[in-house]
Amino acid sequence: MPAADVARSASAMRTALIGHPMVRFDAPKLIGPVPQAGRMVETIEARGKHLEVMWDDGIVLDTHLKGRSEWHVYRKGSPWRRSWEQLRASIQTDDFVAVCFDAPMVETYRQPDRERHPGRGRLGPDLTKTADPSEAVDLLLSYPDREARLRDVLVDQHVMQGVGNVYRCEVLWAAELSPWAHIGDLTHHDALLIVSTAAKMLRVNHGRVRRATTQHTSGGLAVYGRCGQRCIRCHDTIESRPVGRTGRMLYWCPGCQVRLDRRLPPEVREMDPHPAAVKYLNELPWRSHDDH
Ligand SMILES: [Zn+2]
Predict the structure, then answer these.
(1) What's the alpha-carbon Rg for the chain, to the nearest Å?
(2) 0.70 exceeded by the pTM?
(3) Cα of 26 to ligand 1 centre, how many Å?
(4) pLDDT band at residue 138, thresholds of 50, 70 and 90?
(5) In the chain, what are the domains?
């Protein structure tokens, strides 16, 4: 099921289920704790090809909608469009029933507190191990908080694992994206660019003590640790600032990392990429891959 259809299903389910006590739950092959009748559905989120339902007691149902898997919403008593034998989960209220058909994985868990345990919960793909960017791209494009800033989303391990503070700065510089861009403004092209660039940097540096993302600075990094020095692309001065709850230093170039900048007027948010960036991006290995 395409991610856009998962989002549509989530929206239909919200209308039918949220705010009404659940009267019955069924899931013949469920792995995990069973949601109890009488509980309320609080949130329903599409995360890439996953659809997650969360109840008020913190139980989360995660369904992976691969292939012909899908959720339907029916008024109580209406005939189903698919066979009950394909039922993998159903959530019933007084008026509606939402039914998940054919999902290969239906599992529940208790929601960890992301603020207190940022490494827990279902994590994104490990970019040091996978060559397929599509899952992380889907997770970026369906990030629940649409106003979240790129600088924060890039280090969220629920989207992709492996990107820490150094790579977040370097990836945003390579893609010429503003650290203050909102995730909701991101195009598919930009999401793919972020994931692919991060994956390349991680792979190239695997096993190295000294990380490098460019050959054009003495330290091997384009912006990280280079506050006050000249940007190798536009010669503006690199800035730094502590950000987030942990106060980790963000480094960026205000001269060329302006794409999707929410602090700028709309007419300058979309700029043509700098020639050096075009060259850099064209040399990425997955670009030449596409030509085969
Ligand atoms: Zn610059």
Answers:
(1) 22
(2) no
(3) 55
(4) very high
(5) 3-110 (3.20.190.10), 134-291 (1.10.8.50)
**Distance in Å, CA 232 to ligand 1 centroid:** 7
How far the first Cα of the chain sits from its last, in Å, is 27
Q: Which of 196, 213, 215 is nearest to 136 (CA)?
A: 196
What's the 122 CA to ligand 1 centre distance in angstroms?
Answer: 36
- Express each pLDDT in 81-95 by its tens digit: 999 999 999 999 999
User: How remote is the CA of residue 252 from the centroid of ligand 1, in Å?
Assistant: 8
Task: Quote the Cα angle for 211-114-195, to 5°.
Answer: 40
Task: Please count the CA atoms within 13 angstroms of the CA of 111 that sit on its side-chain side.
Answer: 17
Comparing C-alpha atoms, which of 136, 160, 61, 142 is closest to residue 105? 61
Helix (H, G, I), strand (E, B) or coil at 115: coil
For residue 253, the CA-to-ligand 1 centroid distance in Å is 5
CB 10 within 8 A of CB 1: no
